[in-house]
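Example complex used in Figure S2.
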Amino acid sequence: MATGGLNAAKHWLCLVPRRLALDALCLPDPETTLVTMRKGQRSWVVSAGCGLPPGSDLATVLTARPELRWVERQPDAETAYMQQLAALGHSLGAPVHLEQHAPSVDAPAGWASVWVEVGRSARLFEGLEGVRLAAQSNLAANSLNCGVAIAPTMESARLLAAHSDGAIAPSLPALSDMMQTLPVHALHLPGQVIDGLRASGIQRCDALFALASDQIGRRYGTATTRYLDRLLGRVAETRAAHRLPRRFEKRIRFDGNVHSTQGLRFPLRHLFGALELYLRAIDSASQQVRIILEHVDAPDTHLTVSLTASARDADHWLLMCREHLSRLELPEAVSAIVLHCDRFQPLDGPQMALFDAGKAEETAWRQTVERLLARLGEDAVWTMGLADDHRPERAWRRQHPANQQSSGVLPPAADRPLWMFDPPRPLPHSPKLAGPAERIESGWWEGNELRRDYFLATGDSGMRLWVYQDRRSRRWYLHGLWA
Amino acid sequence: MTARPESLAPLLARAQLWRGNQQASVRTQSTGHPGLDALLPGGGWPVGALSEVLTPRLGCGELQLLMPWLIRLTQAGGRVALLRPPLLPYAPAFAQSGVVLSRLLVVNPENEEAAQWACEQSLRSGGFSAVLAWPGRIANQALRKLQLAAEAGDACGILYRNRSSLSEASPAALRLELKDGPERLSVMVHKCRGGMPGRRWQQAA
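Predicted assembly (688 residues):
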């Protein structure tokens, strides 16, 4: 079986988070924070911003560095972080694979990686270098702290991503050259195997690769042989492909409560960055998201942010949210924030590269309307549409500005004033009429029964008024004004 | 020559066209009243600036004065905002006149502070060709802010103010007083940057 040939055709890009447990928490001060795990009596450092190695004993570290703060790891947050990486993977190629293992006594930091096959998409990015650059700029834009590498096998891509960030091994021979100088402890093998290798004087990979396969199997176990076969592309790797969830939901739990909407901006940036990655991955956009603010002792605050056109750009969403948040009064401190999105549309207009003056103006209009809607509320911003009804109050309706469709209704034939009083204003005495009556009635079956005689009337200084007499009460009302 | 006449309308709407006239430095949009255009520097509403329409009261032709321009602007695809109008703008009447309703945005904030913010946003955005605002009482400093926003967004800002504000200084490029009389529009030019103030125009009967 030509497995070697099969694997040689593949190009796996691997993303390996450098400090998953810490970065998953989106803390504002990661440099002075330790993320820890406890098993039985033992508490150890899983991930630290200050560079302490994983596995360090917590009590010992705190004795030496009492200024450091520590928090327990949050498995949910780590899973969400990996989903975000997988979403990034989906925007680069297919299939995508994800593996994640919690920390244990043997592997004190745990391990997790995302792979994506980029051989076919490389052409779109003008080569493997282009794919790597795209991955790196995406990571940087979303503050995702990961090593990246591309190699012909999944195991080798993971190895390079963790130990020689940015490496690209385009073929198996190139890969084999690149791995020669790596230390054996970089290999994904159990601690006692690494110790055994070192004890026999094998420090670098080249020394290990020089050994015959059956010799390795006898000395270090068949698991080691199988690992090396996968690493060097001698057997095919099989893993279940990752599928993106059908809806987006991400939650950030705060370490201390947040008391002002100002304090929500930093976590929101993270959430919308993750949403943008997700939307890119499903090649879609959205017009509406929900934000849920969780409080300790009060019911959740729900916030719906709607746009006039679908979008995926994180900065754009963030801008809209700021307007919403500036109007929001928090009932209580916020303990967690959730971003939720389950309605998707194709991306509208302006995010394409083609840009002309008309489009720029259209984009500027949309963005302004969204800001106005967000800050002033939907009741305060509208466009007008005509409605097919002869009752003056119902001959038109307010429309959401995003709705640009004409109702197809023609305006009434009779002359109407540009200004209307809403509601009509009672007149203390009968007006000076200046024209014939226009009778407007609606049947009781239409509800809101209406029987009025409308007239043009002349007001002070020659103002032209639109007045009516209610036929039941005989009272006069001022309804409109020509201007 | 292959110039197509229909391509002129969008250019006019976006104020990208320089209308050569006696004052080449003022970019304008025709008011649609030739007699009035003749009195104004550049021949119309100044683009990228504030204009004030000072009125004695509501219902003195304040919308009719702008209507020919609004019709042409919206039909050419331009966007217009009505900011805090004093009464409800009645859609059937605007449609009867020929204004394209979907190009007309009504913004009605609860208070003057929010209205000024919205006005500045709309003027500055570059998304509106014209912003018609009823600011109520407004300080000179706030007016200057709006003037800068109109410049930045290259928009025509039309502020409706009460005639009594004529006694106050204003950074607006143009100040027109609308006299009483809804049958025929009657306008007095009080200030026009780059032109001669003090002239009067009355709509033909």
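Residues 1-6, 15-24 of chain B have pLDDT under 50 and may be disordered. Chain B touches chain A through 49 residues (CB under 8 Å).
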